[in-house]
Design goal:
7-stranded mixed sheet
Length: 181
């Protein structure tokens, strides 16, 4: 009897584990897949030199006047993207300062080893409005906005580390995905 429970336990978790795989047609991938299929047009953007970017605790300062804030626990992989000058806040929301709250890599949407696609969320804030006023409440979004971007490294292959990929990458697409409800 003990062996039957052990076997049932193993089978149950093996099936449950397989059921948790990501699906390109659902979850976080569905809107991103749809966006890249309908909105994607290859773009060319300048990359800031590493000497133009200073990484602080939870912020990348670009050319002294621009900044991208991110959560302290964002992870080193995504800090590499900011540190290598691949994102410009002006491209994101037309403002010199932006605060990113969530960043996700979308590996199921990568078309080849030279391409990596990502999503991130921002909460729009109008800092010029007086806090606590009706205008402040109505002028700031409660729900985050989602953006997508693509990095391309023509020299990358299946064996290229993430760090080497980012160091040789360029931003080939950034686009507004919509409001997260």
């Amino acid at each position: 009897m003990k062996h039957i429970f052990t076997i049932a336990f193993i089978v149950f978790f093996a099936i449950k584990g397989k059921g948790q795989t990501e699906n390109i047609d659902s979850g976080k991938y569905y809107p991103a897949k749809e966006h890249f299929e309908t909105q994607y047009k290859k773009q060319e953007h300048l990359k800031y030199r590493k000497t133009q970017v200073r990484l602080e605790k939870n912020r990348a300062i670009i050319n002294v006047v621009k900044s991208i804030e991110f959560p302290e626990n964002i992870g080193d992989r995504f800090k590499l993207i900011f540190e290598n000058g691949l994102l410009d806040p002006m491209l994101i929301n037309g403002n010199a300062h932006v605060k990113i709250s969530v960043v996700n890599e979308l590996p199921l949407l990568n078309t080849d080893p030279q391409t990596k696609r990502f999503s991130f969320w921002i909460f729009r804030r109008n800092e010029n409005l007086k806090k606590g006023t009706l205008e402040s409440i109505l002028g700031n979004n409660v729900n985050p906005e989602e953006y997508y971007f693509e990095l391309y490294n023509e020299k990358a292959d299946n064996n290229t580390s993430f760090q080497k990929f980012v160091e040789g990458a360029e931003l080939t697409y950034i686009g507004y995905g919509g409001i997260i409800i």
